[in-house]
Amino acid sequence: MPLVSMRQLLDEAAKADTASAHFNVNDMEQIQAIMMAAKQTKSPVICAGEPRRRARLPRTFTCSSLIQAAAELNPDIPIAMHQDHGNSFETCKSAIALGYTSVMMDGSLLGGRQDAVDI
User: Fold this and answer.
1) Which of 6, 7, 53, 64 has the lowest tally of Cβ within 10 angstroms?
2) Of these residues, 11, 76, 84, 118, which one is catalytic?
């Protein structure tokens, strides 16, 4: 199954009266463990990256590439790829370009500014 939108994942969870787990992904071992558990429990997952982690990882091992690889290797498990705590419009825009299916802009990081951004 390709990556799914957060809306689709949460709507399906609501219909089934279940919750969906959210995991911050830092490395390959974590995503492998997350997917093993998701496969055993037949559960969808929300895998998240955030700007500080994205900045530390080499380009070929970004959170998005790890999550996309997990989706390819586990086609039966719905995965929403979530950009957690986007610290700027540019960060959120780049997450969308990288294929994230959900983006959160953390307005608390704007120093009190109340900018509205249309994406």
Assistant:
1) 7
2) 84
